[in-house]
Design brief:
Number of strands: 7
Shape: globular
CATH class: Alpha Beta
Radius of gyration: 15 Å
Strand content: 25-35%
Low-confidence stretches: none
CATH topology: Aminopeptidase
Largest sheet: 7 strands, mixed
Number of helices: 6
Oligomer: single chain
Mean pLDDT: 95
CATH superfamily: Gcn5-related N-acetyltransferase (GNAT)
Amino acid sequence: MIRNATNEDFGQIHHVINDAAMAYKGIIPEDRWHEPYMSTDELKQQIDDGVTFICWAENNVVTGVMGIQDKHEVCLIRHAYVLTNQRQKGIGTLLLSALITDSSKPVLIGTWKAAQWAIRFYQKNGFALVSEEEKSLLLRKYWSIPARQVETSVVLADRKYKCLVK
């Protein structure tokens, strides 16, 4: 069942993110990998910065999470993760659909260039890669990430995206 995350879900959200992010180990550039993938302080900062999470939970156990962040003229999908042992059950698709269904704004998603499974997932769900030039401009405008992460990431956009960067 999909529900809005609560303060009580914080520990479970943190666990899901770090469990699922193990898929990146050895895939993304070594200089961008660290354990845990996301610290509790980083997660708190993301929430303080306006990332709102929804959860997939069964019997009050969170097995999938996805966030959305309003960035004025666009919304960003942030931190989309499903527990390793719960993948391939459609949870990610349901969470993504719940977040974007009512959005009147263009939706952007940033992910690692090497995470081909994530790129395919978003493409299967109607998102398309933006050009390399647009990617760099968008990542610098809407995300707060280091230059090295900009180099090694991609951005995907939904159908509402109309080259916001001129």
